[in-house]
Amino acid sequence: MTLTLSQADYLSWLNEASDATPDDATEEIMRYPTTLGQGQQCSITLRQGIDLIIDDCCLNEDLVVKHRERLHPLEYSFEYVQRDNHYQPCYHLYGSGLAPADLWQVPGNQRIVGINVHIEPQIFEQWVGSATADPQVSELLRPEEHLYLEQTGTPTAAMQIAVQQILRCPFQGLTQRLYLESKVWELMALLISELTTFSDDIKAPSLKPDDIERIHYASKLLCCQMLSPPSLMELARAVGINDHKLKVGFRQVFGTTVFGHLHEHRMEQSRQLLESGDISVTEAAQAVGFASRGHFAAAFRRRYGVNPGVYARQRKA
Questions:
Q1: Residues near 300 by beta carbon (within 8 Å), at least 6 away in sequence
Q2: Cα–Cα distance between 156 and 142 in angstroms, integer?
């Protein structure tokens, strides 16, 4: 059985379950209610714009959280999921920019230990300084109207050591926050290094005809479900290939990411709707899956060089 929540309901549930630690307002602990599972989530504000979440839980059933399209900070997470008496590690890295509507899934009946880090873009820019022009950094710092970068991988040995040092931090108070922030930046540096390797790797693999056929099928599925698109893992399972090959394949076949391809389809569909003259800008935005008219207008202007309202009026003239 699967429990499905909206993002608003999930955040409301977290707020209700959270308790600020009496002697430290920068730290909150949320204990999972027994109706949902066991374990706890500890949220620590290292400083303004940098938040660390440490999670150790086992849910009673699968959890699915529906995310709407939204602006996104830089974020990364490391997870250790217990399967067959051993832990399988993985990491997820997300840049800043526009996050598409998607589903966030947490498996039930499996212990999950991990960390999640949110960094506001301006804090990251201060950290890298003049390096904001570097290709890897600019990929992470995308404008609000651009879809964010996302990458999934297996942690290196150096990453896993840093994660374990965070999970087993021996300090308290100010010393704890200084120590943890140093590890947060260490992990970010290691992820950027891995991002360079990934960017080089995605150009190399060749696709078999069967892979290309599956990727085209994935494109059709994605575009048919643009109002409630499947997650990357769901899409990969639906077409019978792994998520890495799906991501690499989309770049080779369509010259963009999976959700970049979806974004292009949404933009083209919205343009055609506005060109018909029978629909308002707000209706066009909703028809292609944008939760915010402002985000839609910015994306449309970036894609076609004109505001959607102006475009619609020009077509009527």
A1: 267, 270, 271, 306, 307, 308, 311
A2: 26
Q: What is the pTM of this model?
A: 0.68
pLDDT per position as a tens digit, 238-272: 999 988 788 888 888 988 878 788 888 989 999 99
Query: Distances from the Cα of 69 to the Cαs of 88, 211, 228, 235, in angstroms?
Result: 30, 29, 10, 18
Task: At 100, give phi and psi (nearest 5°).
Answer: -75, 165
Residue 231 near residue 103, CB atoms below 8 Å: yes
- Tokens at residue 307, please? 């505001």
